[in-house]
Write a structure and sequence with these properties.
The structure is a homodimer of 336-residue chains. By secondary structure, chain A is of the alpha/beta class. In chain A, 42% of the residues lie in helices and 15% in strands. At the A-B interface, helix 9, strand 3, strand 4, helix 11 and helix 12 of A face helix 9, strand 3, strand 4, helix 11 and helix 12 of B.
Chain lengths: 336, 336
């Protein structure tokens, strides 16, 4: 062996072993355990040439719920806070709303009263906060809000409150040829304003609750789209597989959620042939994040939560439940 | 210069000039002319680092109408033929339709009478042919039909009737980092069954007229989606930019069409900042394909055709009209 070849061989061994080290720990924020093992085994077995579970590159689709799965949803969804904080600006534009409920209550700033507003009232507010403007104006409003708004507990922008272990999962899937999609009950246009920067997920890979838009022209003849209050896709529960078919047209091979709103997406994923991965994030870490649902030992029947029934279904079907407390070394990137 | 370096340099020059030769002719089925020049200049100027018209990779979106833009639409859209040819099977399943119009007329096989059916009747037939079954069953039905059905003029499968010059455009855009989308008035689920194989366009990049689906379970508890007769997206005219926003969430940088149904998609594309390419295929080759619309010298006011008004708008706005007769060396891949 010549000296050059020895150097070259040494170099290749070095590259190969670095690659192996990386391959051995694609998920550094995860503790060893059943959840981490399930993810790594799924990715390895579906991407290794010759594996009986091999999935061709074009069929590698992984879908992720957002609120409570990729970022903090407790105690209130960020989008709900956005809508509530838009109310003063909305009333400025439409003064007749100042004395109409539920806008009147929101304007008082009385947190307790606001927290008690029923879902119908939040829907009324959302309809005004999320439609009636051009798509461009809406995006500008959301971006401006996101740049300034802070979560009340961590005093940080909401986009900082993503789960570091899940960011690693997104990157790990993508590094192995999976297209990662957000499939959220949240507003599609809302999430699209930050998904690329926050998760590396482009707008065309965000499936969410979506309203119609209407094409028209401004005074100079320039076309633009107006957000209408007409719902096209309610991307919750059965709406998730329906939205996945509509927007993607393929069944996911992996799906991650954390609530009853994700149950049908996981069922739909599980019903496909070959290797499928179904995972649910359990919020059981009251100290580092929050504990709610079955982890809190309380029956929780609110929409969009992890009910005991879902927990039981997961166990029965062999879906993997991720314990934030024991599976995650670190939850938020900015915390130790 | 050592001998080794001379060889190496010679090799690099060879590689560079092969690359240049390829770069000089990415569109071999196109004659030199304004249309080919517009495409090549657009792609080069939007992808060259440092170009004032540079478009970042993630924003490279190009949208293509299908019928009449990527494949033959004349004299009848393939999907309409599919629906008509489904009628015997439909009536077998629902015998009560045998004596109901328009099914009765279709069953006679009287081509002249069938050709005269008004649009409302075709919509009635489409509603039954394109909904009421599971998504999986529908895909199987379409695939089976496509494998057997033949166009009446060329006696070939419909999927052979794609335009070779446009196939080259799709590949050229993709080779330069553009995501290519079909944005069709045709059925989204219909086109998705063959788009990947026929155009290299995956299901998630097919935007088309789409109905709702409904999530449910079969007797064994396995979930499935049923195609409903409820229209979610009418992807024609203003529905094209609306569908693009819904499904992609970004404005295209290039859009190709051939009819009034594509007008708003091209306007919406043109209204974006920076470099934008708007092109319309003119069917003016009666010998090799068909001549209709303004090329036929006749006012043609049918829905979805290239009207004189659209031709005039294109000229006024500086959109490029592609003459099939003079811009395309070859139209169909299997012809000389």
């Amino acid at each position: 062996m010549t000296r050059t070849r020895r150097i070259l061989t040494g170099f290749l061994v070095l590259v190969a072993s670095s690659a192996r080290v990386w391959a051995q720990d694609p998920l550094p924020s995860w503790n060893d355990g059943a959840a981490k093992k399930a993810i790594v085994e799924f990715v390895q077995s579906t991407t290794a040439q010759g594996s009986p579970k091999f999935v061709p590159a074009e069929e590698r689709i992984a879908t992720f719920d957002q609120d409570g799965t990729l970022w903090v949803e407790h105690p209130v969804y960020s989008q709900v806070i956005y809508c509530l904080e838009r109310v003063p600006a909305i009333v400025k534009e439409k003064p007749e709303l100042a004395n109409a409920e539920p806008f009147k209550t929101v304007l008082t700033g009385d947190r307790e009263a606001i927290a008690k507003l029923p879902t119908e009232d939040l829907v009324k507010i959302a309809a005004v906060a999320l439609s009636g403007m051009s798509v461009d104006d809406f995006q500008a409003q959301v971006k401006k809000w996101l740049a300034a708004a802070k979560d009340s507990r961590w005093k940080r922008p909401y986009t900082d409150l993503t789960y570091q272990p899940m960011q690693e999962v997104l990157k790990y899937f993508r590094a192995n040829g999976y297209k990662t999609y957000i499939v959220t009950g949240g507003g599609q246009d809302f999430v699209r304003t930050y998904a690329e920067k926050t998760y590396g997920i482009p707008p065309e890979q965000v499936v969410g609750t979506a309203g119609a838009t209407k094409y028209g022209y401004d005074r100079s003849g320039r076309p633009f789209l107006t957000k209408e209050p007409k719902l096209l896709l309610n991307d919750n529960d059965a709406g998730k597989p329906e939205g996945i078919h509509f927007m993607i047209g393929r069944r996911p091979h992996a799906a991650f959620g954390n609530s009853t709103g994700d149950q049908q997406m996981l069922e739909y994923t599980a019903a496909g042939d070959g290797a499928r991965l179904m995972m649910l994030v359990l919020h059981d870490d009251a100290k580092r994040e929050y504990a709610y649902g079955p982890a809190a030992g309380l029956p929780d029947t609110r929409v969009g939560t992890f009910t005991q029934a879902l927990y039981d279904e997961a166990k029965r079907r062999g879906w993997t439940v991720i314990s934030m407390k024991s599976d995650w070394k670190r939850i938020l990137a900015f915390e130790p």
